[in-house]
């Protein structure tokens, strides 16, 4: 996602492209968000187009899970969703900043070490 789409996601709003360059919005819009859409529609469409080719269902599922953790726990600033495998996938969501996905070779991933680091820095 891009910065604009992340801004809307943080506000609980999801935007998708409809037919012929139109946008479909899911969630409650404020006047500020409506203004942002009007002022940055072309950039929003560009972010959506860039995401279409790159989004994979598992990445989207992990992203949604991390964002749901942040939504359910307002005091939490960081949410981490880790799935071991080959490769392992770790999604990190930072409230109001970004959501990112890491792909780590199985032989380099240590879930216990990840948990220890999260505890050390107050995020577990």
Please give a structural write-up.
This protein is α+β, with helices and mostly antiparallel strands and 124 residues long. The chain has two domains: 3-54, no CATH class; 57-120, no CATH class. It has helices spanning 3-10, 31-54, 57-72, 111-120, and strands at 14-17, 23-26, 78-83, 88-94, 98-104. Strands 3-4-5 form a three-stranded antiparallel beta sheet, covered by helices on one side. Strands 1-2 form a two-stranded antiparallel sheet. Strand 3 and strand 4 (88-94) form a beta hairpin. It is globular. The two termini are 25 Å apart.
Terminal-residue CA separation: 25 Å
Structural class: alpha+beta
Looking across the biggest beta sheet, what order are the strands in?
Answer: 3-4-5
Total individual domains: 2
pLDDT averaged over residues? 87
Rg, alpha carbons:
16 Å
